[in-house]
Design a protein that fits this description.
heterodimer; A: 493 residues; mainly alpha; two-stranded antiparallel ribbon; 3% strand; B: 504 residues; 20 helices; membrane (chain A); Monovalent cation/H+ antiporter subunit D family protein (chain A); transmembrane (chain A); CPA3_Na-H_Antiporter_D (chain A)
Chain lengths: 493, 504
């Protein structure tokens, strides 16, 4: 099969799924079957695309050309493939999990939920395979719009309020900062294609590099860099599967993915390193990592704590990208995958606790580990992987990130600060994540709860699969390592 | 090339016929036939001039500069297409809406007035004679005063009166300006005036005439701070008229400004003075002010009307920036804004038709009952924000590009601030429609069980969705719109040299 067709299918399959699902209000079983089926088909398509990689990277799919030199075009590329594989693979898991979660929780408007979920995945695929910044921007905005009704799903006053924060911050920042950054890039380079080594490298006047990069960092608010991070905790009012796949994997990873693409293919890591533009910009993710971790420690609401943990982890990726050397970039792209598997496990566990025992606060979890041993075991695995201990996949990304920090060629003080940030934040991870299962297993509950039980079976399966991957990826990270190197000029990694 | 004059002659023939009709349905059918014919003619005309040809038509065979000449290039062909196609869709929309809002006796007169209004606008667009332009301006204005006054509410009368007073002042200014220009040049033919500009005796008279003409048209185009008539007029007029005027009336006036500034007065003459900065500044203020006022409105139609004030600001800004991309952005926005604003006002019209109100608080929760209309409103609203993949983005893109090229930073900031405010006011509508609990007595003053009102008529849905579809289609396939805009800019700059900007 040829690559352009496969790329087109990767967008059309979830869209078709969405169309079918929206008509199946009356037949919930068939509806869920179709969701699951489209997830599986989509994953297979991405695997087929992986098979053609890296030979077929020169084939492009062009849909239209609204502006001069700005087509809506798609192409397979290493980072995109990595992102698409992770997102579509986890969509299967999330679909299984959702069946248990949404039914046990008696959620309303489930059809709307499944429909929009599939549309959001289609947007993610389009983002992953975008061949230029314009196409990426198009679907970046579309993703914001389609996920907004998922955030306000509950329809309560709080959900609406948080939904407004979500929309205004994400869309507002992209209009106010990202759009001018893109226009400036276009004016300088005359096009917006992703070019190995950087489109702007050698074109842009060096003194404008840092301001432009700052515009990009502020504009891509989906990456959750402070101070424009507040939409992510707001998005936690959404049902857990949304928080898990979209706000721990798809949407936020679309953000860091965009930053990675901008750094590698639009500006060019060598250009950044050569001009030293990143010497002060790295403080932005560094502060985010630490401040978000500290805020996470104060949060008693489990999903909010996880959200702040996500913010902090996303900035690892941004930091790796801004380190602008091969180790940092490798660590950043690896972390996209590693963090996805670990964080989705944690969110699934949080959802399972909510569904089975209606607990949302960390302080309420004391002693619950005896009733839900499986859930908390999975939670422990996820936490350990995020902390970055051996036998868990998270170790590899942290390994490369630290190597990237060590190879950072800026001021020594900044370099040490980067290393210190990574270390201290790992310790903070222990403090705010690992204390949760510890409390669940070892603290004695004030009032013993008689009715405590495990979540429905689909939820348990959903949790187990990514947790297993967390361990598996420690032993076999090679395919990820292959995909986490930028495609070079000749098309080979 | 008799097509050209048919655009003006046909409505002139149809309007009295329509006025004679006793039957409202027959009047509607006649108008629909007329609009179909006109839009076919306009598209035909557009096809002829799209790639730079210019059609000259001497009215009555009298040669210019003595006779009246019609001159059609890519720019006014685009305006004709906008006027006729929006006219066609509003007439398609009008049937049920007019039955509800306009009393049976005057329905025929209503349609006749609408035809005269279209006639006036087409005449303004086609003519190459500046006094003739004034005549058509008055035809379209007088008929629109009457149309607005037919609004269902008595407030419509005061709104129409206010528009009448301000509109007449504007027309008077324009006429005085034309008079002075004639005194200085001895000619009324635009091309003739432009060609002999260097030989004029009294330059004082010329500069005064420029000031009078610009102010007169600025009033008609509702350029900030001369916009005060617009929100009242648009929100009180019958639904169909809001749709039609919002999408076309101000566009035609903007067209006149461009035409006067580029093809009557030489660019070098006015661009050295304060005018470009004035246009840029007023455009920016209009964008921010209009968007901010839109945000505070509680009625959908008022909100949309203030948003129009802001959108006119974008077009003025594009003219004021004085480079190719800025002018292109203005042309594109003429077309793009017409599509999206017509769709939005149509949605408001459907809400009024079904729920008898356009107040946001009373429309609460209607999104569930009217999913198609609300979805149309959202898509058109996204286009207003400037979401990529919709027409709104295309014009905003060129405008930003132009602002960066000319280095007018406050214009960049105004455009971006306007877009962020647009997110807020569009989402204000969406939230009211979708997320507020349903307003129990959503349908007022309507006898219960009236089945005619319980579903949206097909004509309304078809016309809304045609517009929404074009919102997306022309956002992705921009060949037609950008080609015509590019050709128009080329025509303008070939007649008189336009400042070309390519380096920041």
């Amino acid at each position: 099969m040829n690559t352009p067709l496969l790329i087109l299918l990767s967008v059309l399959v979830p869209l078709t799924g969405a169309g079918l699902v929206s008509q199946l209000q009356r037949l919930p079983n068939l509806r869920e079957t179709i969701t699951l089926l489209s997830a599986v088909v989509l994953f297979i398509i991405n695997l087929l695309l992986y098979n053609t990689f890296p030979e077929m990277t020169s084939q492009r799919l062009v849909l239209a050309e609204p502006f001069e030199n700005l087509p809506i075009a798609f192409r397979v590329e290493a980072y995109g493939l990595l992102f698409a594989l992770v997102a579509s693979g986890l969509w299967i898991v999330t679909s299984i999990y959702s069946i248990g979660y949404m039914r046990a929780h008696d959620e309303l408007n489930q059809t709307r939920f499944y429909t929009l979920f599939a549309v959001a995945i289609a947007c993610v695929m389009a983002i992953a395979y975008s061949d230029n910044l314009f196409t990426l921007f198009l679907f970046y905005e579309a993703l914001t719009v389609t996920t907004y009704p998922l955030v306000t799903h509950a329809g309560t006053k709080q959900a609406k309020k948080q939904g407004r924060v979500y929309l205004v911050l994400l869309m507002g920042s992209s209009v106010a900062f990202l759009l001018p950054a893109i226009v400036l890039t276009y004016l300088q380079a005359g096009r917006l294609d992703f070019v190995a080594g950087g489109l702007l490298s050698g074109v842009l006047n060096a003194q404008w590099l840092a301001p432009l990069l700052l515009l990009y960092l502020l504009g891509i608010a989906k990456a959750g860099i402070m101070p424009l991070h507040h939409w992510l905790p707001s998005a936690m009012v959404a049902p857990t599967p949304v928080s898990a796949l979209l706000h721990a994997v798809a949407v936020v990873k679309a953000g860091v993915f965009t930053i990675l693409k901008v750094v590698v293919y639009v500006i060019g890591p060598d250009f950044i390193a050569g001009q030293g533009a990143h010497h002060w910009l790295v403080w932005l993710p560094m502060l985010t990592i630490l401040v978000a971790s500290l805020i996470a420690m104060t949060k008693d609401h489990l999903k909010e704590r996880l959200a702040y943990s996500t913010i902090s982890q996303l900035s690892y990726i941004v930091l790796g990208a801004l380190a602008a050397n091969s180790y940092g970039l490798q660590g950043a792209s690896l972390h996209i995958a590693m963090h996805a598997f670990a964080k989705i496990t944690l969110f699934f566990a949080a959802g399972a606790i909510l569904v089975a025992n209606h607990k949302t606060k960390v302080s309420e979890l004391a002693g619950l580990g005896h009733a839900m041993p499986f859930t908390f075991a999975m939670f422990t695995i996820g936490s350990l992987s995020i902390i970055g201990l051996p036998v868990f996949g998270g170790m590899w990304s942290k390994w490369y990130l630290i190597a990237g920090a060590a190879a950072f060629d800026g001021p020594t003080f900044t370099q040490w600060a980067m290393l210190a940030t990574l270390t201290v934040s790992s310790l903070l991870n222990i403090a705010y994540l690992l204390t949760i299962p510890v409390r669940a297993f070892f603290a004695s509950p004030g009032i013993p709860s008689v009715h405590a039980k495990e979540a429905p079976l689909p939820c348990l399966i959903g949790m187990a699969v990514p947790a297993i991957f967390c361990i598996y990826l420690f032993f076999d990270p090679h395919w990820l390592l292959n995909l986490s190197q930028p495609t070079t000029a000749n098309g080979l990694p | 090339m008799q097509t050209t004059v048919l655009l003006v002659v046909l409505p002139l023939l149809f309007a009295p016929l329509t006025a004679l009709c006793r039957n409202g349905k027959l009047a509607w059918a006649l108008t629909l036939v007329l609009m179909l014919a006109l839009s076919t003619l306009a598209i035909h005309l557009m096809r002829d001039v799209l790639f730079g040809a210019v059609i000259h038509y001497e009215l009555g065979g009298w040669a210019p500069p003595w006779g009246i000449e019609y001159k059609i290039d890519s720019l006014n062909a685009l305006v004709c297409v906008i006027v006729t196609s929006i006219g066609l869709l509003s007439v398609l929309f009008a049937k049920s809406s007019v039955e509800k809002e306009i009393s049976e006796q005057v329905t025929a007169l209503f349609y006749a007035c609408l035809q005269l209004c279209v006639l006036g606008m087409l005449g303004i667009a086609l003519t190459g004679d500046i006094f003739n332009l004034f005549v058509f301006l008055e035809i379209s204005s007088l008929s629109s005063y009457a149309l607005i006054a037919m609004g269902r509410n008595r407030k419509a009368l005061t709104a129409a009166l206010e528009y009448l007073i301000l509109g007449t002042i504007g027309a008077t200014f324009f006429l005085l300006g034309v008079g002075m220009l004639y005194a200085a040049s001895g000619s009324l033919n635009m091309q003739d005036i432009a060609r002999r500009f260097a030989d004029f005796g009294s330059m004082h008279l010329v500069s005064t005439s420029l000031a009078f003409i610009v102010i007169g048209i600025a009033l008609k185009a509702a350029i900030f701070p001369l916009h005060s008539w617009l929100p009242k007029a648009y929100s009180q007029a019958p639904s169909v008229i809001s749709i039609f005027l919002a999408a076309t009336a101000t566009k035609v006036s903007i067209y006149v400004i461009i035409r006067c500034l580029y093809q009557v007065y030489p660019v070098d003459y006015w661009s050295s003075a304060v005018l470009p900065d004035l246009l840029t500044g007023l455009g920016c203020i209009a964008i921010v002010y209009g968007s901010a006022r839109a945000l505070t409105q509680t009625d959908i139609r008022n909100l949309l009307a203030y948003s129009s004030v802001a959108q006119i600001g974008y077009m003025i800004l594009g003219i004021g920036l004085m480079n190719v991309h800025g002018l292109m952005a203005s042309f594109l926005h003429l077309f793009n804004h017409a599509i999206m604003k017509a769709a939005l006002f149509m949605a408001a019209g459907v809400f009024f038709y079904r729920a008898n109100t356009t107040k946001l608080s009373e429309l609460a929760g209607l999104g569930k009952e009217m999913p198609w209309t609300t979805a149309a409103l959202i898509i058109a609203g996204l286009s207003l924000i400037g979401m990529p993949g919709t027409v709104g983005f295309v014009s905003k893109w060129y405008l930003l590009q132009s602002a960066f090229e000319t280095g007018v930073w406050y214009a960049v900031i105004a455009v971006l601030a306007g877009s962020v405010l647009a997110i807020l006011y569009v989402w204000k509508m969406v939230e009211a429609l979708y997320f507020r609990p349903a307003f129990k007595v959503a349908i007022h003053h309507v006898p219960s069980g009236s089945s005619g009102i319980s579903r949206t008529p097909a004509g309304m849905l078809v016309s809304i969705w045609l517009l929404v579809f074009s919102c997306i289609y022309f956002g992705i396939d921009t060949r037609l719109t950008t080609t015509s805009a590019r050709t128009a800019v080329a025509t303008l700059s070939s007649d008189i040299h336009i400042v070309s900007g390519s380096t920041p």
